[in-house]
Input
Amino acid sequence: MTLGMWSLLLLWGLVTPCQGLLEKVGTLARIDKDELGKAIQNSLVGGPILQNVLGTVTSVNQGLLGSGGLLGGGGLLGYGGVFDVVEELSGLKIEELTLPKVSLKLLPGFGVQLSLHTKVGLHGSGPLGGLLQLAAEVNVSSRVALGVSSRGTPILVLKRCSTLLGHISLLSGLLPAPLFGVVEQTLFKVLPGLLCPMVDSVLGVVNELLGTALSLVPLGALGSVEFTLATLPLISNQYIELDINPIVKNIAGDVIDFPKPPKPPNPPKPIKVPPKEDHTSQVVVPLYLFNTVFGLLQTNGALDIDITPELVPSNVPLTTTDLASLVPEALGNLPPGQQLLLSMRVKEVPSVTLQNKKATISIPANIHVLSYHPKGTNEALFELNAVLTLNAQLAPSATRLHLSLSLERLSVKLASSFAHAFDASRLEEWLSQVIRVAYVPKLNVNLDVGIPLPKVLNVNFANAALEIIENAIVLTVAS
Output
């Protein structure tokens, strides 16, 4: 990537995170620095990164330790040098590398200061013969910039790396005291070339995890949600903030937008995001995602249902006899004992309300009540305009926010009748009973897909604390 492009990407990081307001409909992810530290530590455990460092020092920087080099024949300490007794110090290998201790500091407006403290075990041939074993404490210090890759994903890029030698111990073999300074100087020159690539490998693993946050998540038969980066990644001294744009598509791949944002003079209000405490990570799920998922359910016909006697238990009345006790004028000349069919159609997108620590879904529906003849022609009785108000219980899992609905209340008005007009409110209790046993379970099955959460650094939100604020859900999990 050109210098100019990287300059642009680094300028993007020179923005401070939002002060509690989310202006757009995006999903906000605030990832604590502890989670970044875990991801870096996990990349070093059980993988090939440390193993790849093991090998000969001379293969990385020929001439420093071999014949003709600093310590070899003809060099400073070789034949004719200060210590002509020394012929060579060769074959020095990194045989052991302890699991580094990770420490990091977030640099607002830039990226990360990353330190890996480790101990290196080196084996080789001593200058006076025999096996030489050394152990050196090393701190690998690097500055890492936060930017955006060509794929539009957050990316950490190594900008500077150096090593600081600590205590060097001679474990076995003979090494004259004056040579310790030479060994230290040699390791100072060699180790950055060996250990700084390890930092690059670590960042490669972490960048893969950052990239998974922007992915295509299936919504079963409804479609999918594609997460993209909406704005520039931001960084504070405690967390990295990603404003992620959820693009919802139907099963055909067409972008869906339910509902359209209000236009001025009534623009949408910014979401007031509560402050994030230290050592926690947050995901803010906007109202937009809820509305869009219910919009997909409505356009797919998944909110429609025909309720027949087979779909309700025997203790729930669904005959003209039961209806006659409530609104006899609605039956005309129909005899008692006839089975009923309730045909419910949702022709408008439901609305979701998130406020006052409560999630509510309002579903407008047309309910056609008919005399049911399984082997004949159904006879229309009347039509109702109904509004179902449902409470949503929300429960997070590792990757999704799950909803379970229950009917709070039902209001109905008579739209038309083939017999006589009547007060439809007398049917509300009966219809509520039918809807609870036949319709709400169907809704909950269709909602099994849940609301997808962006997957950032494998942060698991299954045990997150859930808070319903105005127009959003906030999930907070301890690091």
About this structure: The two ends are 34 Å apart (CA to CA).
